[in-house]
Design brief:
It contains three helices and eleven strands; from the N terminus they run ββααβββαββββββ.
């Protein structure tokens, strides 16, 4: 111990200082790792996210005529509508007003490239997303819709920007949306169960 300038100064313990520096660094490093673990874990996909791309089964046993049910596949809404004979009869009424009435654009599997855009005429299966900016249109099955127009025979209306689709999810001319809504790959497991996300040729 030495006296310098009227104050008492202890000799420097270099070994002790190195130990404290190393210990502090170790504790700090452990803290960084501990903090990083939950952050890294939060970036890993959840089990739900991992399964989001897997095919899904939709039960239509309780789907009444004219009604629509909603499921999910790949994080997107999947709509299934049980179209009545009257709804099906209306499909060709406004063909001249549609952008792609014959479904020439690749918005559906080949086996749904027909007048009803479906495997079974009564059941419409589609991704419920507007092809304009990705909004979710509203199901408007009633053919009487003064706010839309006298030509309306039922379908979907996107309230975001006014895109209109018929009951086969085909877009009307003059809509901001350029394409018909998407029909996903699907097939029937039974008369009352649909598997969405798999081509029928590939099976279950």
């Amino acid at each position: 111990m030495s006296i310098k300038g009227g104050s008492v100064q202890a000799p420097t313990d270099l070994k002790r200082r190195k130990f404290l520096v190393a210990a502090t660094a170790a504790v700090g490093g452990a803290g960084v790792v501990a903090a990083a673990v939950p952050f890294i874990m939060s970036m890993l996909p959840s089990a739900k996210a991992l399964g989001a791309g897997a095919p899904v089964e939709v039960d239509i046993s309780k789907l009444e005529p004219g009604m629509m049910i909603i499921s999910e596949w790949r994080g997107q809404p999947v709509w299934v509508v049980n179209r009545t004979p009257t709804m099906l009869a209306m499909l060709q009424k406004n063909d001249s007003m549609l952008t792609d009435p014959n479904s020439e654009q690749n918005q559906q599997p080949e086996y749904c490239k027909n007048a009803t855009r479906s495997i079974k005429p009564e059941y419409m299966v589609l991704i419920g997303i507007c092809t304009h900016l990705g909004c979710s249109p509203t199901y408007r099955p009633n053919p009487v819709a003064p706010d839309i127009g006298s030509y309306w025979t039922g379908g979907w209306l996107c309230a975001c920007h006014g895109s209109r689709y018929d009951l086969a999810a085909r877009v009307y001319q003059g809509s901001p949306a350029p394409l018909n809504m998407v029909v996903p790959p699907h097939f029937y497991l039974t008369d009352t169960r649909i598997k969405v996300g798999v081509d029928p040729k590939k099976g279950a």
